[in-house]
Automatic annotation (TrEMBL):
Transmembrane segments: none
Record-level GO BP terms: L-methylmalonyl-CoA metabolic process
Superkingdom, taxonomy of origin: Bacteria
Protein name as it appears in the record: Lyase
Signal peptide: none
Keyword set, alphabetical order: Lyase, Metal-binding
GO MF terms held by the record: lyase activity; metal ion binding; methylmalonyl-CoA epimerase activity
Pfam families associated with the record: Glyoxalase
Organism: Streptomyces olivochromogenes
Keyword Metal-binding listed: yes
InterPro entries in UniProt: Glyas_Bleomycin-R_OHBP_Dase, Glyas_Fos-R_dOase_dom, MMCE/EMCE_epimerase, VOC_core
Entry keyword annotation includes Coiled coil: no
Domain VOC: 4-135
Amino acid sequence: MDLKLSQCFIAVDDHDKALAFYRDVLGLEVRGDVAFEGMRWVTVGSPLQPDVQIVLEPPAASPDISPADKQAMAELLAKGVLRGVIFSTADCDALYERVRASGADVLQEPMDQPYGVRDCAFRDPAGNLLRFTERPDA
């Protein structure tokens, strides 16, 4: 079976803040910026993975979702309980210093994990959990 990841979605409540983080701090390239029916989707990705896109979308962007569910999603995002993305990097410590210096919310300083990676964790401006892992052979 020929199966590869193409896109993943991260809910954001402010696209301009998200762009400042994902583009300016993490160095991802902007691949699209689309407005539709009062909403906005921004697509970013790593230059090292041209076929994988991360879509920064409004919380509960589905047109079929109820107002109560939209409110619940916005509250969960604000609490920081929605899942995010795990990135890999060749230098966890350097990446940590760069992201920390940007003022991002630090959840975990770089540390060696018992399952074989060195990693650190932050929250993006919307509160999503982002982990950055370095494999020992990197």
